[in-house]
Write a structure and sequence with these properties.
Low-confidence stretches: none
Mean pLDDT: 86
Order of helices and strands: HHHHHHHHEEHH
Strand order of the largest sheet: 1-2
Distance between the termini: 12 Å
Length: about 240
């Protein structure tokens, strides 16, 4: 796979992210830039794996990348999407705190934190209820988020497939580790396969485009005057991709 287009996109992002300026104590800016920085790091990890055709783990990163990208799109479209992210975080914290009650059942990993369960759980439940009321919705599903970002097709056609790579999926395991040898008419076991895949160009090209577009999105949120540089760079990627696909 020629991952040069993604590598250059990452270099461009790293060069320009330091030029972004946020307002202090402004959650909208902080969340947006944080998402963008995570996109840069996820794409860099993906590029390191895929340059040598290491597919196991790479598509899990692509899945996480898409979730971050969708959140950034939704933030750009509506600042109130902050409440969606806060509610997600609240549910995650509540789930962790409820696990602390296992300390009473002898789980040694929670014994030193048991006291937090009684004090923090009621507070977070109250915060979550307030956010849910504000959103008029208990919680947004992943599909809800993709639909809100105008990426329902990507959810149904790509994200669902990537989820198989993230879990202990039999179909993914078979695809990774078993190959039919037509000449010998038997199945071979494969580990650390490093052959290129027909879908490599698709993933590399789209991640490069998504990353560059994410830069434009965060510039719009910050009202940054370097947005034009990201827009121009995105057009350059689109031209490059059209030549290799």
């Amino acid at each position: 796979m020629n991952s040069e287009v993604l590598k250059k996109s990452i270099e461009f992002a790293n060069e320009h992210v330091v030029q972004l300026e946020m307002q202090n104590n402004y959650k909208y800016h902080a969340y947006s830039v944080g998402l963008y920085c995570s996109l840069i790091e996820l794409s860099q990890s993906f590029e390191i794996l895929t340059r040598d055709y290491v597919h196991t783990g790479a598509l899990v990163l692509f899945r996480s990348f898409m979730e971050h990208y969708v959140d950034l799109i939704n933030l750009r479209n509506n600042e109130d999407y902050i409440d969606v992210l806060d509610l997600d975080n609240g549910y995650s914290r509540l789930k962790q705190l409820k696990q602390l009650k296992q300390a009473k059942d002898g789980n040694p990993y929670f014994s030193s934190l048991e006291y937090l369960a009684d004090t923090d759980i009621p507070r977070i439940q109250k915060e979550n209820a307030k956010l849910a009321e504000s959103l008029n919705k208990k919680r947004y599903s992943v599909l809800d988020k993709f639909q809100l970002a105008g990426m329902e097709n990507e959810y149904k056609g790509l994200y669902a497939y990537l989820c198989c790579e993230a879990h202990s999926s039999l179909s993914a395991i078979v695809k990774r580790h078993f190959r039919k040898n037509e000449a010998k008419d038997h199945i071979e076991l494969v580990v650390h396969a490093s052959e290129p895949s027909d879908s490599d160009v698709f993933y590399v090209a789209n991640m490069a485009l998504y990353l560059s577009h994410a830069g434009s999105l965060v510039c719009e949120i910050l009202d940054s005057d370097i947005k034009s540089k990201f827009d121009e760079y995105t057009k350059g990627i689109q031209n490059s991709v059209s030549k290799i696909t």
